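Q: A small favour: would you put together sequence and structure tokens for a protein?
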Amino acid sequence: MTLGGVAVVSLASYRRCCDRLTTAWPGFLAKREERLAQQRRFGTAAEKVAENIVEDLFTMVLDWRLSEVNNQVGYADLVLTRLGVKHLIVEVKRPGALAWNERSVNLALAQAHRYADEQKVHSIAVSDGIMLYARDHVPGGHRDRVFVHLDQPQAPVDLWWLSTDGIYRTRENPSGARLRLLPPAPDSTPQSGNGAQAGLVHPKYHLPAVCFAYVGSAADPKTWHLPYLLADGTPDLARLPKAIQAILSNYRGAHVSSVPEAAIPEVLVTLARTAHKLGKLPASGPSAARAYVQLQEALDQLDRLAEAFTP
């Protein structure tokens, strides 16, 4: 990359930005995952979630001050200013609304361009918390500035072009900054314990994968959690309520943290079916154990209680 014939990498501001990016990126990814938990939990997330992610990007990863990120200025979602001068307008959509939808991207860009024209701003960006694309308005068209995936494991150094030292510079060779849709996310559904290698057992419990309520990878016993069956496949009367408690309350003061939240409903159904076979569900009356009452209430809230009573 060059800037007026000078390699960008030779600029002190570029090197400082890269150091900041590398240091801050893991924390940004972790915070982004927390913000997107709502989407995994309910299947969708509000536009505000994506706005928060973009704000984190500019203030945690890049070097904009929080006071320089302005909300809802002339209908623009975010406007970045420096000493009162507007440098970038960002149109934000709900998480996942742009990454895989070309029509939505074009509509968002049209909105951003309209706001930029009204406010006489040179650069625009669109983001949904999954991707971010920025470009500059030039006579007769546009010039790409940045395109990044916001979940990539390594910090994208191209973000320098959106830093306080890069935003006002012209990107003369924007290779790699072209807008493109992202490929669909890979299926990360936990595997069934039935796919485990024959003879493979958990190193602590000495049980096969089918004895655990959650199996992340059938080939990796470290991802097997919440044992609830004995080695012969019959219910473990001692461990079953403990597995339920580990999710819904606590077991010996500990809460389960090794099972992804998205997998919890299916795990609860698995445990509930076994509890039903033992006559623990439906749980009613003063003699019902608290663990099974909590399990029943949780599944009812998730609208999955009926599944506990079906094979």
